[in-house]
Amino acid sequence: SDDTARAMSEAAASNVALEIEPDSGRRGGRMAEIAGLLRLLTGAESTLVVNNNAAAVLLVLSALAAGKRVAVSRAEAVEIGGGFRIPDVLRQSGADLVEVGTTNRTYASDYAEADLGEGGVVLKVHSSNFDISGFVARPALAELRQVATAQGWLLVEDLGSGSLVDTSQFGLEHEPTVRESLEAGVDLVTFSGDKLLGGPQAGIIAGRADLVDRVARAPLARAVRADKVTLAGVAATLRHYI
User: Fold this and answer.
1) Cα 152 from Cα 50, distance rounded (Å)
2) The model's pTM
């Protein structure tokens, strides 16, 4: 929108209080505004903005799953644009990939039977740019939540496009929303700030406050953090949704 473009242009041309609230002198600034807007829009306890969704996925896995085992359905070990492959990202993060189910049919029981051990992670990946149809099965998020809770594992979802509204109201196929994922019990969800959300290129991590805090304190977080222009654009875009 014009407002988003104007906000980004102004941020690029001047100093911006990113992490300090000018009126109080306390930590906050634009990060606090974005977090507040996303709490209203998604119900997330806490959020973090990085430079794109690929970085968000890598950062979450590096911070929470390095040296641990991560279960991914064989139907979701995908490659999306730019050669971004889920198995490669897991390898880079230091996590061990455990493939479950089959290419066309995966059940909650497949995850439950996976040998992830202590600190395991169930990773749900939105296929985004392809679809498998016909003789298929995939578990609902609520089923995965039950499995993860029973085993003491985390449930993380790479939602990709990150819609904040029900696309079916515009005559389109329903796209899963961030709020739906969090209400189904996902611990952390990652999604893009551009694409369906409609803002500048960014990656957003949303969910449990304790986990977002751990991710934010990881050494890699500083390397992939969003700059002031991106944050200005994200904030302006979210205000439109409000």
Assistant:
1) 28
2) 0.91
Q: Name, in order, each residue with C-beta under 8 angstroms of 50's C-beta and a sequence gap of 6 or more.
A: 56, 59, 202, 203, 204, 205, 221, 224, 225, 226
List 85's β-bridge partners, or say none: 79
CA 37 to chain centre: 16
Q: Find the helix or strand (DSSP H, E) in which 144 lies.
A: helix 141-151
Record the tokens describing residue 142, joined without a space: 């609520």
Select from 126, 92, 141 the least CA-distant residue to 196: 126
Query: Which residues does residue 156 pair with via DSSP β-bridges, in sequence order?
Result: 123, 188
Token pair for 55 = 């970085």
The token pair that represents 226 in the structure block: 């969003």
Low-confidence ranges of the chain (pLDDT < 70): 8, 15-30, 81-82
- Compute the chain's Rg from CA coordinates: 18
Q: Note the pLDDT of residue 17.
A: 63
- Rounded-to-integer distance, Cα 161 and Cα 140, Å: 19
Closest CA to 185 of 131, 127, 124, 241: 124
Structure-block tokens of residue 219: 């050494």
CA distance 213 to 208: 9
Sort strands 84-85 and 79-80 into parallel, antiparallel or unpaired. antiparallel
Residues in the chain, total? 242
